[in-house]
């Protein structure tokens, strides 16, 4: 069940110059949030921003009733959100969309490939999969080490691999060039810049590995009503907000082949 | 206190939702009790399935947004055989927005919707700015507008609302033409044709280049047009364009609207419609108004 709620900022962490994290709670029970689902936040006090901003859920603490958002500062909306401080209020519509598949048999081996802000939903995913006894390899990429925030948070949940364009951390090069990428897996999940996800999807398709990608299109409603955020799937236009943001690449041949 | 009548359509309050902003109602069922609405207008429905325009389809603009969805919908048969059965139990007025590329298509869709017991009205969309054939082409000439409305009138027997385009020199003239052709009501305004350019990439933001502007930015234009049309025709007017609050809704009523539609505001607050209904009731109480009809068209 989707809800609208005023959350309180419980904690704010600055992560380098481009990213920050907000830990949010509203004092009550939250509906279950699946890995890969997102929230739509209301940006208040910024005249240039009217529509809500979709932000993927980075982490969920069901016992504490809190949710963490990892946000990259990219425009007027996220710049305003960056000014939020503990005790400030943030109105959210959540949980939205169709998340990652987590019905993976224990003992399976999966790869998660994240780039930039796309690493956000992979933390919640890696926690859920580790709980299910799935063996996770978490491959994170960025132009520089500073652009791969919160990488340490992933360490308890699987094998952590890093690729940076400048070699400032981990393997020098793209994520798809990292040695761990070409190993054998039962499933690959990816979220990040479109060219990265397309390269991951093409490789997974070639190798016959099941693969899910999390798309990020511009949205208005967030609930499948306005049809603004569509992506071209093999079944025609589908809403990223409702039918996605996570899609199995078997429905996205047109998308990853171009 | 808030009951109004749009032709034969009795509304428990004047608040409807605008087509294309409210899906088929179901998308908002987690946030509000749909039965509280005066009614809702479902997504534009055409004779056959349409994929709509390519992505990107929207861009945020000052106090508004441009969209160019292009009437993506599953077609009238799918609506009648699937969607209708999921929503027909609701205790509110479900109005189908009907669109097409030809007079024959408009008539065929209207005729099929006419057969559905729980659909008491259609909103004939002769004003979509985002499709190449038909749409706004029918709504920008009094002659074409009156031809399509007269043809639909022959096959459609319930309340016929015609949605008008603001992208004309005189909206009152179009309103008079559709009234003369048998419309029971007019709704206005559809979106204002607009455009926005991404100067860094040196290309339009939307794949379709132009799109329809909606949101608070268009409200004063809409109020003016509602006022002009309300003075030009005898049939009831349904007002829309940037309504976000109860005060906005009351402004439209004073300008001459019998009912209003909430559009873009649903994206900002999915529960906004019930807040507007509650706010209108509170406003009436605070102003000693026993019947909302007292303020309709007082300007």
Give a short synopsis of this structure:
The complex is a heterodimer of chains A (258) and B (299). Chain A is α/β, with parallel strands linked by helices.
Q: Estimate the helix proportion of chain A, in percent.
A: 10-25%
Radius of gyration of chain B from CA coordinates = 18 Å
* Helical content band of chain B: 25-40%
* Classification by helices and strands of chain B: alpha/beta
Q: Uncertain spans of chain B, ≥5 residues at pLDDT below 50?
A: none
Task: Please summarize the sheet with the most strands of chain A.
Answer: 7 strands, mixed
Total DSSP helices of chain B: 9
Structure description:
The complex is a heterodimer of chains A (258) and B (299). Chain A has 4 helices and 15 strands. Chain A has a 7-stranded mixed β-sheet, with helices on both faces. Chain A folds into 2 domains: 94 residues, Elongation Factor Tu (Ef-tu), domain 3 (Beta Barrel); 106 residues, 3-Layer(aba) Sandwich (Rossmann fold), CATH 3.40.50. The radius of gyration of chain A is 17 Å and the shape is globular. In chain A, a hairpin with a 2-residue loop joins β13 and β14. In chain B, the strands form 4 sheets. In chain B, strands 3-16-15-10-9-8-7-4 form an 8-stranded parallel β-sheet, with helices on one face. Chain B has a 4-stranded antiparallel β-sheet with strand order 5-6-14-11, with no helix packed on it. A two-stranded antiparallel sheet of chain B has the order 1-2. The two termini of chain B are 20 Å apart. The chains are: A alpha/beta (258), B alpha/beta (299). At the A-B interface, β13 of A face β5, β6 and α8 of B.
Give the secondary structure arrangement, pairings included.
The complex is a heterodimer of chains A (258) and B (299).
Chain A: E1 3-15, E2 19-25, E3 38-41, E4 53-61, E5 66-72, H1 76-81, E6 89-96, E7 109-115, H2 120-131, E8 135-142, E9 159-164, E10 171-172, E11 187-191, H3 194-207, E12 210-214, E13 230-233, E14 236-239, E15 246-248, H4 253-257
Parallel strand pairs in A: 7-8, 7-11, 8-9, 9-10, 11-12
Antiparallel strand pairs in A: 1-2, 1-6, 2-5, 3-4, 3-6, 4-5, 12-15, 13-14
Chain B: E1 4-6, E2 9-11, E3 15-17, E4 39-45, E5 58-61, E6 64-67, H1 76-87, E7 93-98, H2 103-114, E8 121-125, H3 136-139, H4 142-155, E9 159-163, H5 171-180, E10 185-188, E11 192-195, E12 197-198, E13 203-204, E14 210-214, H6 219-232, E15 237-240, H7 246-255, E16 257-262, H8 265-268, H9 272-286
Parallel strand pairs in B: 3-16, 4-7, 7-8, 8-9, 9-10, 10-15, 15-16
Antiparallel strand pairs in B: 1-2, 5-6, 6-14, 11-14, 12-13
Helix pairs in contact in B: 2-4, 4-5, 5-6, 6-7, 7-9
